[in-house]
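BUG-188 | component: ligand-complex export | severity: low

The export step for heme C jobs runs without errors, but we want the raw record kept on the ticket for reference. Input record follows.
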Amino acid sequence: MKTFLFVIGILILLISIGTFIISKENGQKMTFSPYVDEKGGISLPKDFRDNWTHLGAWASPDNTAKGFFHDVFTQPGIVEGFKKNNNRFPDGAVLVKEVRSVKSASMTTGPNVLSADKEVLWFVMIKNDKNRFPNNPNWGDGWGWALFNAKDPSKNVSTDFKKDCIPCHVPARQTDWVYIQGYPSLHE
Ligand code: HEC
């Protein structure tokens, strides 16, 4: 028994050293999310349109100039995680809302169909169950909050979620600040 525990101990030590070396080689400390740096800086996920789950879409016809189509994505497996977690998003879940401008076109389906044209903006929320980054104004109320313009997708232009995001998300407060009524796969 003692030898067994000793061997297990050595194995755990070796795995820890290995993980430490790998994270050093990657040039930055590992955090709970690949889209978050150690200071809480948020970056826009790149591959969401190819590989993520499309949760749902909104259209805002009165807001054509700013963007008409809103498509919302989350990572693979999050829908299942949401249901297992009593209808709450699990730690590390990312929501990306892509806003696209429109172009009218005459299509076989009808004369006034509008097609999604260029990306305008991306809104990003990252679930944070452990109150990480308490002094960073882009984090709070259980999420990290960010906004990226198509002009420069590398820069989060939101500086304070309490000012930039929360006032508009108050109607969704009971559902963890997310407008889940728009996402059919989350409904039971
Ligand atoms: C003008 C009001 C308004 C502001 C400001 C706003 N939101 Fe939203 N947001 C909404 C509404 C309404 C929806 C759902 C319907 C829609 O997209 O039209 C939504 C949806 C989202 C979604 C998709 C998930 C969900 O909650 O349904 C994300 C992600 C999001 N917002 C993030 C943000 C972030 C981050 C900020 C701040 C940088 C922000 N929002 C600021 C009103 C707003």
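Assignee comment: Attached the raw record above. Residues 58, 60, 70, 72, 95, 97, 123-125, 145-147, 158, 161, 164-165, 168-169, 172, 178-179, 182 surround heme C (CB under 6 Å).
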